[in-house]
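SAMPLE LOG
Freezer: B-3
Tube label: C17
Construct: single chain, 150 aa
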Amino acid sequence: MRFHRAVLSLFLVAIAVFLVSCSNPTPVAKGPVYTTEQLEQIQHLAADVEELRDRLLELPQLIQAQEWTDVKTFIHGPLGELRIRMSRLARNLEPRVQTDAQTAAKNVFGHLNLIDEAADARDPQKAFLNYNEALKDFDSFLRFLPADIG
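STRUCTURE (predicted):
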């Protein structure tokens, strides 16, 4: 009789372990990723970066007109702050997306440098190609911003 009780107890323990292992885990409530102050800071930095994104749209006219001196001046002048502002914004993002945002920002800078080289070579095809790639990378960077800063 003891043997049957021991086997029955072991059987019930096995069923309990199986049922517990098959159940869904208890969801853990996650707090907000950013504090209110962080969101305000990101919103301020994002506004500056988006303003420069809008200024970037002036570049194709200069390339089309082959105003190479103006292209170089524009990249080093009004867009000269872009690297600093994008880097600062990327550092304020949550750690999970910081690296990807910094990579996207570096890609934008790389394309701007290639546009600068194209201006030196007076190569509109290379300039337009890198302009389009810079826009893609810029938009990719902006996707890393929190959705609730609008």
